[in-house]
Amino acid sequence: MNRRGQMRLGALIAAGLALGGVTADAAPIVEDNHHYTITDDQQTWRMNAVRMDHQDGDSELSASGNSIDVQSSAYDFTATKGASISYQRFTNAADPTTITANRNRITLTKGTLGNVFGAEIRVTSTRGGAVSYTANENAVVIGANGVQSGDLNAASIEQVGALDAPSFTAEANGNTVTINNGGAANHVTAARASLTTNGAGTVHISAVNNHITANGGTLTYGALAGRAYADALHGTAETLVEGNTITLTGTRLSGGMAAGNGTAYARSNAATAITARNSIRIENASGAINSELTGGAAYAQHTTRGATATAEENTVTVTAGSFDDGREVTGGRAGASGELRTVAATAHANRITLSPVSAPWEEIRGGSANANALDTEAQAVASGNIVTLNGGTFEKDIFGGDSYAQATRGTAAAAAESNEVYLRGGTYTGSIYGGRATTDGSAGTTAIVRGNTVEISGAPNLSAAHLHGGDARAASVVRADNTLIVRETKNITAQSIGDFQKLAFYVPAGMTANDTMLRVTSNANTNLSGTTLAAYLPGSSTANRLRLLYAENAQIDTDSATTMTVYEGVSGHRTARMGVTANKKELVVKVDGSAIDGGTTPTPNPNPNPNPNPNPNPNPNPNPNPNPNPNPNPNPNPNPNPNPNPNPNPNPNPNPNPNPNPNPNPNPNPNPNPNPNPNPNPNPNPNPNPNPNPNPNPNPNPNPNPNPNPNPNPNPNPNPNPNPNPNPNPNPNPNPNPNPNPNPNPNPNPNPNPNPNPNPNPNPNPNPNPNPNPGNNNFVLHENTKSLAETMTGTAAFLGASGDLIAGGGMTSASAEAAGASRFAPFAAVGGSSLRHETGSHVNVRGMNLAVGFSREVMRGDDRILFGPIVEYGRGSYDSYLDDGTHGEGNTHYVGGGVFLKQEKKGGVFYEGSLRLGRMSTDYEADLPVGGITRRASYDTDANYVGAHLGLGHTAKAANGTERELYLRYFYTHQNGASATLSTGDRYDFHAVDSHRVRTGARWTIPQGSGALILGTSLQYEFKGDAGATYHTGGFSYDTPSPSLKGLSGSLELGYRANLSKRATADLSVEGWAGKQRGVTFKAGLDWRF
Asked: For residue 147, which of 112, 103, 109 has the smallest C-alpha distance?
């Protein structure tokens, strides 16, 4: 076949017409960029059937850049392909082959199409040399009047038969499917690549950055954005599926979806599958999601050299819209299985956010990891996954992270760590787990559940739900730091809570004594033995008795290892203010420090639970939670080897389910069955519910309720010193005394108040900054509240920079502009700075300052007087840092005006001064540590300021033209105090800040050609610059630690003055600082003499 014939073949491939078989040698076949339009009048079209048989040498084949536009509604096309290549290579073809189908496009403007391929590469047989396939940037667009009813693939690569070769590589990247409003598509795949071979050094597939987008329209039978499947009998298999997206807005749905699905199957070598950063986003859609939604799934199987599967940072988001049906949702799933070498499955940092108007959902898993080994080690880790549920009905169990590991004759380790579940709305009828780690429980198994969180906020209906922090089942179990958070909500009802080592109650503003934050209705006791309990009150809280937890049909158990602490806003904490009532029914906070059972016990609120007492323990689970076996699935599949067939089915049969029934095996169903509906739930119950014996009760809860009467003295009042002063000061009115002890005759009742005279100095300044003032209502102010006051030092320093600009560049520019002018002349100066101010901690301030005004000169004999009005403006940002790492940040700006005056004497002596008034605005935000956690706090303030400076100096000019200036200046800035309420409710008064600075220095201007070099040095001392704030609560006041700008700094300056023209001069200088103030400032001025 000659070259001309080859070129014609390429054109026909590109256009998609039919040809018979063609045999080609090594010469490349390349013919791209053909375009074909089908209209009602032009319908010459046949099924593509091009075949290339390669016999010898290397080969290149390309069908790229071609397009088909279908604009006909008069004819149904059963198969439409923008580019289709069928390839076969014989034994003697030992050199490499490259096959490319890129940038092809099909647009269905109107009409009906069946099967659609933007680009298709199909290989039925190959051997010998290395082969690479590329199908990138192909596109299919379904218009408003288009209907597609078969299978749709923007890019498809399939190798169904191959013998040995050094390597097989496939890329299917950057392909897109777009469905416009009114269009309809079926079984949509943006990119899929599948390579099967008897043996190769490496089989590598990537499916990256492929996208399915629908705005309106109809999508039927699901969608898959990126799929990679590699099956090597004697080689190493690797798949990478990354950055693929499905974005559907206002679309009618039917079917399930997966954004990323990667399967690597190596039957005698290593297998690696990675699925990362894929996403599904469905907004304001409707219809039925009647199959699983999976952000990303990765499956790896091997027989001898190890398997690793990783699913990380995949997301599923559903917002608005209503659905008639909904199934399982998984953020990221990883499954690995094999023998002889370690198998590892990791599901990390995957996210699910569900916020529909209404939808029924089944099991929800943020991350799922499943590892199954025969002879060695199986490792399964689900970590850092986040599930946020804002609405819908959740009919089955929910897991932040879920892991299962099994090794038939080896060791198995499962871990679920740092997973988070946020319950903000919706109705729940199953169990909810922060994390679950399970094994078959045999010898050599380990399960770790650590640092998982379940958080309740808003108004979810949990009346039929059981809440678990961390469920672990193995021969060796670790449970630690699993936390239940009830955040700023009240009157929530749940069946039970268990397996939590920490409980945190963020008390909502406006909570009353009759409210209950969380009520549990189970008949089993709530076990808080060894639990760390914390209550976070709103700042400046005034309420007294607050009910955090109420056991309606049972009791609350605690022991000596239970700790209880009360914090207030972000400002401090109160000691011994929390406890369980004598009847062991209530966990309450007494803000005033009185006895837990003292006073009148308010009636618990009338249980707003929509199902007040749904058979107090609808969970027939005889001990719904005391058996921390939180999900005592009775028949957990006792068979510890759910895959009794260890022979992984080496049969190259691509159905690489090596364990025909790898129940715990994550369904590495290698036969990916391009069905985008990858139901990647390899083992729909990936957690084979290894609770092999309904009553295994390995007692994961070390003491679910071991001692039915755990503390015969039920009122141990965990309050460490429930009533420190034996004489509890029956005179309760000294406490609310608004000035607890500033008045020298502090409470005529001198001897109650075992306050050991914490204020010995008769005139103690009732707020003696040492925050742990034990006499003030038992409240301890935190040292990190200093961060709140750091803002004021930063703004004071920033205002000081404005004074420097006016006294320096501003005066210089004003003098130049006014020279010889008979009236007021405009001038301007601008400066910038990036400075670190040591304040005991430090604050970094960056910003720009601007000064503009009018200047005029008046001659009085030999004296020259300059004066005029000035306007100033500055905008900047700051970061403050305490020694404990607390980091505050914010923005600041000011605007002001004033006047200046300067007198220049004949001998070079000068006097100067300025006065400015203005207003400063500042905001602040920080994550402040409170009781082992951080809370976001913010505030905004506005304050007036006054600034002034006085200076004197001397200017002399040498014979060579060098001008030297010596100066001494005093700067004063007063910034008014301000009041602010933090976002956490804490009420603060910020003190006024006064700055007194003296600066002395010298400056030389040395002529250099048409310009001049500027050199300078200075010393500056700040005499004050102290900031502070006072926190008010319960009639008492507490001062924060005080940062200060006081100290010595020095600077060196380098600059240049350029004569731009006879009338224009520009100054630019940079000044470096060291000492109390460190960093760089710059100044720029432009003088234009009118």
From this structure: 112
What is the Cα–Cα distance from 552 to 605, expressed in whole angstroms?
Answer: 11
CA dihedral 60, 65, 71, 72 (to 10 degrees): 0
Kindly state the tokens that stand for 887: 């980091």
Owner of token pair 């996403």? 279
CA 566 from chain centre, in angstroms, equals 28
Tokens 């010596």 belong to residue: 966
Count of helix runs (H) and strand runs (E) in the chain:
3, 75
Distance (Å, whole) CA 310 – CA 380: 10
Provide the edge-to-edge strand list for the sheet that holds 360-361. 360-361, 393-394, 427-428
Task: Tell me whether strands 492-498 and 516-520 are parallel, antiparallel or unpaired.
Answer: parallel
Q: Is 785 strand, coil or helix? A: helix
CA-CA-CA-CA torsion sign (1041, 1043, 1044, 1047): positive
- Please answer whether residues 400 and 453 qualify as being in contact, where contact means their C-beta atoms are separated by less than 8 angstroms: yes
The DSSP symbol for 156 reads E
Q: Report the alpha-carbon distance of residue 828 to residue 1086 in Å, rounded.
A: 7
Tokens of 299: 């499956």
Instruction: List CB contacts of 885: < 8 A, sequence separation 6 or more.
Output: none
Q: Which residues contact 8 (CB under 8 A, 6 or more apart)?
A: 31
- Quick one: CATH architecture of 783-1088? Beta Barrel (2.40)
| DSSP, res 784 | G
- Quickly tell me which residue has 């403007």 as its tokens: 109
CB-based contacts of 18, cutoff 8 Å, min separation 6: 46, 47, 48, 49, 50
Query: Token digits for 509?
Result: 């503003």
Neighbours of 557 (CB within 10 A): 26
Please name the amino acid found at residue 828: A
The pLDDT averaged over each successive group of 10 residues in the chain (1090 residues) is 28 34 45 69 44 63 88 75 84 77 92 91 83 95 91 93 81 96 92 86 92 93 91 86 95 80 74 94 89 92 85 95 87 91 94 89 95 91 97 94 93 96 95 96 94 96 96 95 95 96 92 93 95 88 86 95 89 78 93 78 58 39 38 38 38 37 39 39 38 38 38 40 40 41 42 43 42 57 91 94 91 82 85 93 94 90 92 96 93 96 92 96 92 86 96 93 94 96 92 96 91 94 95 87 95 88 78 94 70
**CA 485/CA 549 separation, integer angstroms:** 12
State the amino acid at position 1054 in one-letter form: L
Query: In this structure, what DSSP letter does residue 941 have?
Result: E
| Selection from 493, 748, 765 nearest residue 618 by Cα | 493
Write the burial class of residue 980 (CB in 10 Å: 0-12 exposed, 13-18 middle, 19+ buried): buried
Contact 687, 440 (CB under 8 A): no
Q: Give the HSE-up count for residue 966: Cα atoms under 13 Å, Cβ half-sphere.
A: 5
